[in-house]
Amino acid sequence: MNPIDNRALRRTAGVGLPAIACKAGPLVLALLLWLISPLTFAFTLDDLQKQLSAPAVVKGPFVQEKHLRALPQPLLSQGQFVLARDHGLLWLLQTPLRQDYRIDAHGIARRDPSGWQALPNRSAGAEQNRLFFAVLQGDSTGLQRDFELALTGDAAHWQLQLTPRSLLLKQVFKRIDITGGRYVQRIELSETQGDSTVLRMPESSGAADLSDAERSDFAN
Amino acid sequence: MPTERLLPRLFVCLLLAMLAVAGWQWHRGAPLSADLMSLVPGATQDPLVQRAEQRMQEPLNRELLVLVGHPQRQQALALAEKLAGQWQASGLFEKVQWSLQTDLQAVRTQLLQGRLAMLAPADRQQLEAQPDAFVAQRVQSLFDPFAGFSLVPNQDDWLGLTGRVQNSQPKPANVELDTASGALIAQADDHYWVLLRARTLGNAFDMQLPLQVADLLANARQQAEPLGAQLLAASGLLHAAAGQQQASREISWVGGGATLGILLLLWLAFRNWRALLAFVPVLVGMLFGSVVCVALFGQMHVMTLVLGSSLIGVAVDYPLHYLSKSWSLKPWQSWPAVRLTLPGMSLSLATSCIGYLALAFTPFPALTQIAAFSAAGLLGAYLSAVCLLPALLASAQLRPALWPLRITQALTQWREALLRRVPSGALLALVLLFCAGGLWHLQTRNDIRQWVGTPPQLLQQAQAVARITGYQPTSQFYLVRAADQQQLLARTQALGAKLTELVELGKLKGFMSLSQLVASPAEQQQARKALEVLPEHWQPLVALGVPEAALQAEIQQLQALPVQAIEHVLAGPLGEAWRPLWLGADAQGVAAIVSLQGLSDAALLQLQTQDLDGVQLVDRLGELNQLFAATQVSAAELKLLSCVLILVLLVMPFGLRGSLRIVALPLLAALCSLASLGWLGQPLTLFSLFGLLLVTAISVDYAILMHERIGGAAVSLLGTLLAALTTWLSFGLLALSSTPAVSNFGAAVSLGLVFSFLLAPWAAPRDGAPTPP
Known about the structure:
The structure holds two protein chains of two kinds.
Chain A: H1 11-35, H2 45-51, E1 57-67, E2 75-84, E3 88-95, E4 99-104, E5 107-112, E6 115-118, H3 126-136, H4 140-146, E7 147-153, E8 158-164, H5 167-170, E9 173-180, E10 184-191, E11 196-200, E12 205-207, H6 212-219
Antiparallel strand pairs in A: 1-2, 1-11, 1-12, 2-3, 3-4, 4-5, 5-6, 7-8, 8-9, 9-10, 10-11
Chain B: H1 2-26, E1 32-33, H2 47-62, E2 63-70, H3 73-90, E3 93-97, H4 104-113, H5 121-129, H6 131-143, H7 161-168, E4 176-177, E5 184-188, E6 191-200, H8 209-224, E7 230-234, H9 236-270, H10 280-297, E8 300-301, H11 302-308, H12 311-315, H13 317-323, H14 334-360, H15 365-392, H16 403-421, H17 424-441, H18 456-469, E9 473-482, H19 485-504, E10 510-512, H20 521-531, H21 539-543, H22 548-560, H23 566-571, E11 582-586, E12 589-597, H24 602-608, E13 615-618, H25 620-680, H26 686-708, H27 713-734, H28 740-759
Parallel strand pairs in B: 1-8
Antiparallel strand pairs in B: 2-6, 2-7, 3-6, 4-5, 5-6, 9-12, 9-13, 10-12, 11-12
C-alpha cells in the first residue's frame, strides 16, 4: 500500500550542500595522498600515474599555512606524516597542538586518550573512499572527473594545476596548485572566498616498510 | 390494454432522459476515480489532522523516484541525465531533478543568520556549560586538515558556529553527493544508482496521468536495457497505473465473461434469439446505476465498477422470472406471464434493494457507492423488465428446450428420494454440525492492503529503492500542537528525546522533527546569554593571532541577531526538507508533524505520547484496520436488521410462518458459506461479510420463487437454477480478481449462492413433510 515516499529524500536537497563542504577536506587529503608519492621522470599524467604504486611508504615533516584574509599572519602548524600505500595515511600534528589523525579504508579517525575514534560526522562515505582509493591506486580518472588537470615542467621540477569542473566545487575552490620534484613539495589550495591553505613537505623520503609503531597505529 | 402501450412509451421517455443525463455527465471525460483513500471513511473530522494527512500523502501521489543503476558510474550518470532531459520535455512533470546545482551563497547567508537559531543542542550545551572546551574545539578545527572547508569564511565566523551547524545537519542515509555532476549516488549490489526525482503536474488520481507516467518509465526501461542499465522506480503513480490497468482488465473479464455466459445460457435454454433480449434490463441497469452513482457522489470509483459489473447476473434474474414460466405456460405470452410473476418480481426487487441498501449504512464510502449503484441498477433493470421487455417480446413464441426442465425434474426427484430416507430434521442437524465445525476454523483478517492488488514487482522495486537509499518512510506520524512556537519546539523536543531512545533500541529507523532544525526562542536567548561570558575563555584563539576586536565585533553581531521563527528558518535552502512538517498557525495555536522512518509497532509509538501534552500519533492505516474490525460487528447487526425488514415485508403475502421460512433459509445459506470459508481456510474479511449480507438478500429471491411454486416445483426450481447460474457466473468471476478484497467478496457470494440454491426447495411448504428449518 505504501510505496516509497519521496518526502524523506527531499532532505538530500537541503543537506547535500553542506555535505560537499565536509567532503572538501578529504578531497584535499586525497590529492595529497596521490601527489605525495615519488614522481620520477613524470612528464605526462600517465607517467605520473605509473609512479604511484612504486614506494610502499613515504614519510617526512609537513608545514601547513592557513592564510586567512583577515589575519596579517598565517596560522602555522607543523608535524609529521606517514603515507603507506597499503594502509593509509597518518597525519601527526605536533605544534601548536598535538593531534593525530588517520585516514584509511574505514574513514577518518582522531586519536584521543582512549585510542582512535572514528569521526562520525565526516566519516568517509562511498564517494570519499572512492577518491581516496582512486588516488592510492594511481587512478587519475577519479580526479579528472572533478578537476581539469594541467601538468607542466619536467620530472625534477613540475607543476600541476587542478581547476574544478563542477559548479558545486567551483563555489568552494578557485584552484589547486601542486609543485614538486622527486616528491611533492608544495600544495596550495585557493578558496573562492579568498582564503588559501599551503601545505609544504620539504623533506619527504621513501621507505620500504612501516615501523612497528606505525604498523600498530594502522592496526587499531 | 392501454397500460401495455403506455408503459413502454413512458419507460422509453425515462430511458432517454437517463441517457441524456449520462451524456452530460460523461461529456467532459469519464467521471471515474482511482483514489483508494476516497473509498475509506474519513477517519477524522479534525481539519488539522486531515491537513497533516494530506501533507504526508501528497508526495506519494505526485512524485516519482527512480534509481538509474549501472556497474559503471559514468554510464549511470549519463543515462540519468538523458532520461531527465526526456522527461522534462514530456510536459508531464513540474520538475525533474537528477543533479543539485544550488546556489551556495544562499546557504552561506542562512548559516550566518542561523548561527544561534540552528545550533544543534549538543553544541549549544557546550557553549553554555563548557566555554573552554568550546573554544579549544574551535582552535583544533582551525588546524584540522580533515575538518573540511566551511562554507562561511573564517573571518565571518571566528567562533566556528556555522561549521557546527553545517556538520549537525542530518546526512542522507546511503546517498552520496557526486561532486562533479551534483548527482546523488548510492552504491549497492555492484551498481552505482543515480537518484532521479520527478514531480508531476497533476496527481495520481487523474485518470490519464498514471498511465502516461508508467508508459514513460517503460520506454526508459527499453532504453536502459541495451546499455546494461537497470531502473528501479517507486511512486504512488505507478500503483495507481497498475490499479487502473487491473481494474479495466477485470471489468472486461467479469463483464465480458458474465455477458457471454449468460447469453449462451439464454440461447441454450430458450433456443430463440429474442430471448437474448433478456439482456436489455442488464444494460439499462448499468446505465441507471452509473447515472445515479455519479449524480450522488460526483464520480464513480473503479472498484465500484468492478463490483458493480457483477450486477449483470442479478439484473438478468427479473426477465428470467417470467421467461422461465415458458416451461409451464403454454402458449407463453409476454404480458400475461409478467402479470403472473409481477408480485414475486416486486418482492424480489424490494428484498434485494434492502440487502444492498443495508451496505449503504456502513461507514465505508466504497460500500455506500456500491449500494447506490446496485440499488439504482436493480430498479432500472426491474423497470425495463416490467415495462419495456414484454413489449419487445410481445410476439415471441417461446418453445424452450426441454433438457433444463429434465435436469430440475431429476433434481426434484432425487431430493424427494433423499427425504424419504433421511428426514429434514436429520439433514438440518448435519448441516448445523458442518456449520459449527467450519465456524470453529474461521479466522478473521482485516487489512487495508486487501483493497489493492499490488503487483509484486512494484512492491519489490519499492523495497529495493528503500534498501538502496536507506529511506523507509512510513504513513505513521506524530502531530504536535501547541499554543505558540516556543511550546511547540519544546514539545517536539520532548518527543524527539523519546524517539531517539527508540532509534537506539533499533525499534525505529529514524525520525524528522522541526526541533532538529531550529532551537526554540528561549534556547536561542540562552545561547545569546552564554556569549556574554565567552571573552573570558577565548584566550587560545587570541593567541593564534585572531584580533580581539574581530572577536568582540562578532559577539556584538551575534547578540544583535533576531530570534528566528520556524517559518524564517524553513524559508532558507537548508529548511527545504523540513518544510512539509510545518503546519503553521491557526486560531488554536501552531502545529507540526514529526515524520518517521521505518514502520514501527503502533502500540509502541502510541506509548511515547503518554505524558506528552499536545502530541498525537496519527496512524491512518492502523485506524482503518481497527475500523474494519469494528465495522464487522455493525455489519452483522445490519444483516440481522435487513432480515427483520425483509420478514416484515413478506408477512403480508406469505404469512408469518411462510415468511419466517423464506428468511431463515438465506440465513442458513449464509451460515453455511461462512462455515465453508472456515473449512477452506479462507479468512473472514469485512468484504466477505458484506458478500454474505448480499447473499441473504439475493437468496430470499430464490426462496420466494420456490415458495410461490408457480408452474410446479420443478419449473420453480428451474427458474431458481437459471437465476442462480447467471448470478453465480458474475460473482464467480469476481472471485478470480487479483484484488484480495474483490476476490474475497466474489468467493463469499459464490459460495452463498450455491447453498442458497441447495436450500431453496425447503421454502416450499411440503404436504406431510417434516417442517424444514
